[in-house]
Amino acid sequence: MEEAKNMALLFFMDHLMQKNGRRTIHDLSCQFGARGFSEEMRNAVGTTQEGLTEFLQQHPSLFTLEGDQVILNGFGDITAKNNPLLQSASRNRDYEKEAVEFFVMKLTKFGPELQVCVLDVFC
Q1: What is the CB neighbour count within 10 angstroms for residue 19?
Q2: What percent of the chain stands above pLDDT 70?
Q3: CA distances to 93, 95, 115, 117 from 103, in Å
Q4: Which of 14, 18, 41, 90 could make an SS bond with 8 (beta carbons 3.0 to 4.6 A apart)?
Q5: Per residue in 17-70, pLDDT tens?
Q6: Where in this chain does the record put each Egal-1 winged helix domain (predicted)?
Q7: Sequential DSSP letters for 17-77
Q8: Would you list the domain boundaries of the chain?
Q9: What's the confidence (pLDDT) of residue 70?
Q10: What is the reported pLDDT for 35?
């Protein structure tokens, strides 16, 4: 039964991803007859829209229900909060300055005798 529940979760997540992360309960319940949705999955979820609603509400980290809409959490949520490439601080970093500061700190710590064996064969 647990495997059927997990397979149903994956099925609905996949369906929501293909449909931009948002569908109605009615649309999802129509998938009970889909080719990839087994009888075991149907029994694990419940065979009605109400059963499906209860099933999805048991997984609030994955799904949000707003009225008759089911929303896949995190899908299409590209914001600076969860994407470091969009954060203004990371876009304005001066990587050359950071590299110079890094090596100045290392030279200060280890002194000018520090051997760097990158291309020197005789190190």
Answers
A1: 14
A2: 76
A3: 17, 12, 13, 15
A4: 41
A5: 888 889 999 999 998 888 888 999 999 998 899 999 999 999 999 999 999 999
A6: 6-74
A7: HHTTTEEEHHHHHGGGGSTT--HHHHHHH-SSHHHHHHHHHT-TTTEEEETTEEEETTTT-
A8: 1-123
A9: 93
A10: 86
Per-chain mean pLDDT for the chain: 80
Could you give the angle at the alpha carbon of 55 between the alpha carbons of 37 and 70, nearest 5°?
A: 85
CA distances from 41 to 7, 29, 53, 99, 106 (A): 7, 12, 14, 55, 59
* pLDDT, greater one: 112 or 4: 4
First to last CA, the chain: 63
**What six digits make up the tokens of 31?**
């998938």
Residue 5 vs residues 1, 22, 57, 59: alpha-carbon distances, Å: 6, 20, 13, 11
Smallest Cα–Cα separation from 49: which of 79, 29, 73?
Answer: 29
By C-alpha distance, which of 78, 85, 1, 83 is closest to 38? 1
